[in-house]
Specification:
homodimer; about 260 residues; alpha/beta; eight-stranded mixed beta sheet
C-alpha cells in the first residue's frame, strides 16, 4: 500500500487487524501494548519492533491504529505523544469526535466480527465500516480497507453504534444463550455438540429468510402447557427461569397472533 | 424397512419426517391432517393416501407417528380410533406417559432440529432421541431411526424436556435475537446480510470451544460507558432496552470477574 502504520493495542482486534494489514502488504512499523507479552508476541510474528512505553512510540508513521479497550482510549491518548498524528480507532461505540480533541486528521475502521486470539478469521469476508475527518483521511482509510476486504461500507458514528448494538444482540447475547444451553445439556448429560446441527440450521435460515418469519417454538405458538412445563423445570435456577420467561414474553408480544410452526 | 406407517399431522415436523422415512424405504400408508391442503400436498408428494377424517385413519399400520401440535395431542387421541395402536410422538416436551392411557405399545422419536416447510433438511445429520415402552417397541423404533440418521440417542422423558429447553435457548431464543438485530439494522438502514459473517463465526466458535469461554462484548468486559451508551440509544424502544439490560446483567453475573476480550 505504501503506508506505514503503528498498532496501538495488541488484543484480539489488534492482533487480527495487524495480521490482515501485514498480509495486504502494509508496513507495520511497531506494536505498542501495555502488556509486554502481547506486544512482543505480535511483533515477533510480524517481524517488527515493539514497546510497552508510550514515550517510545515512533513519531513518523502514516497511520496510528488504536485498538486499546474503549474505556481506556482517553487515558491512553492523554498519556501518549500522539498529538496531530493520523489516529484511527476500531470501536463500534466510540465516535469520530472522541479523536478530535487530539488531532485533526482521524478516522474509524470498524470491523464487524468477533475475534478470538486462537481462531483465524478470513478478513476478506469481514464487513468494515469507515468514517473519517477529511477527504484525505478517507482516501488513506479506503486504500487500507480495500487491502483487507471487499466489503467496505461508510457509517457515521450514530449508525455505527446502532450497528454495534445489533451485533451485541446477534453475537454476544446469542453466544450467551449458547452458553446457557451448554450448561443445561451438561445436566442431562449431553455434549454441546448435539446442538450444532440445530444452531447451524437456525443461523443458515436467518441468512436466507427474515428471522421474524422464521421464528418457531413454544413462545411464538403460545403453547402455554409446554412453557409452563419448562418454567417448572427451570425453578431450581431462578436466573435461567427469569431469562426464559422474559424472552418468551418478548417473542409472544412481538408476534401479535400465534404463528403455526413446530420446533 | 418392512414397516408400514401412518403420519398423523402434516406440519413442519410431520412433512420432513415423512419425507425422510419415505426416502429410507419405509411404506407411508396414509397421511392424516385436519387441514385438507396440508394432508393432500404431503400425500401427493409421497404418492400415498390422505384423509382429514379421524374415522378414516387406516387401522392396520405397524406404526402411527403423531406430529400434531403438543397442545392438541390429547384431544386428538381421544377423538381418533387409535386404541392399542403402536403410537409414536415426536415432541420434546411431552412424556412417554402421555401415550400410555391410549395404548401399551408406544414410543417417542424426537428429532433435534428446526423445520421450515420451505427448507430442505439433511435428516442424516439430525440427532434423534428415542424412548419406548418395551423392547419390541424399541426394536421397531431403532430400525426406523437407523434409516433416518446415524445419530440415534436414547433419552427418557425428563432428559428430553431438558434437551428441549436447551434447544429453545439455542434456537428459538437465538432466532429471536437475530430478529431483534435485523430490526435495529433496518433503522440504519442496512441489510441483515451484513451480520452473517459475524453470526457464522459466533456459531462456529461455539462448535469448537466452550461458549462460556468464548464470551466477548461489553457485558463480559463490564464496559460501563458503552453499556450506558447502548441503553440510551435503546430508550426509544423500552422492550429492547429491557432485553439488553437483562441479558447484559445475566452475562455479567455469570462471569464473576471481568474477562478480557474485545468485540
Amino acid at each position: 500500500m505504501g503506508f506505514s502504520v503503528i498498532m496501538l493495542g495488541a488484543g484480539n482486534v489488534g492482533t487480527h487487524l495487524a495480521r490482515a494489514l501485514h498480509s495486504s502488504g502494509t508496513d507495520i512499523r511497531q506494536v505498542y501494548s501495555r502488556s509486554e507479552e502481547s506486544a512482543s508476541i505480535l511483533a515477533r510474528e510480524l517481524h517488527t519492533a515493539w514497546t510497552v512505553r508510550t514515550s517510545e512510540i515512533l513519531p513518523d508513521a502514516d497511520v496510528y491504529f488504536l485498538t486499546v479497550k474503549d474505556d481506556v482510549l482517553h487515558p491512553f491518548l492523554k498519556s501518549a505523544p500522539l498529538e496531530n498524528k493520523f489516529l484511527v480507532h476500531c470501536s463500534g461505540s466510540l465516535s469520530l469526535q472522541d479523536l478530535m480533541a487530539y488531532t485533526s486528521e482521524c478516522g474509524v475502521l470498524y470491523p464487524l466480527q468477533t475475534f478470538s486470539r486462537s481462531r483465524n478469521v478470513d478478513f476478506s469476508e469481514v464487513p468494515v465500516f469507515l468514517e473519517y475527518s477529511s477527504e484525505r483521511a478517507g482516501s488513506v482509510l479506503k486504500q487500507l480497507a480495500a487491502g483487507l476486504t471487499g466489503r467496505v461500507y461508510l457509517a457515521d458514528s450514530v449508525q455505527r453504534v446502532k450497528l454495534h448494538i445489533s451485533a451485541v444482540f446477534a453475537c454476544n447475547f446469542v453466544n450467551h444463550l449458547y452458553s446457557v444451553a451448554a450448561s443445561l445439556l451438561k445436566d442431562i448429560p449431553l455434549d454441546f455438540e448435539v446442538l450444532v446441527p440445530l444452531i447451524r440450521e437456525t443461523m443458515q435460515k436467518a441468512g436466507v429468510m427474515d428471522p421474524f418469519l422464521a421464528q418457531t417454538g413454544p413462545a411464538v405458538r403460545n403453547d402455554k402447557e409446554i412453557i409452563q412445563k419448562h418454567m417448572q423445570l427451570l425453578a431450581s435456577t431462578p436466573d435461567l427461569q427469569e431469562l426464559y420467561r422474559m424472552l418468551t414474553e418478548h417473542i409472544h408480544n412481538q408476534h401479535k397472533r400465534p404463528i403455526h410452526g413446530i420446533f
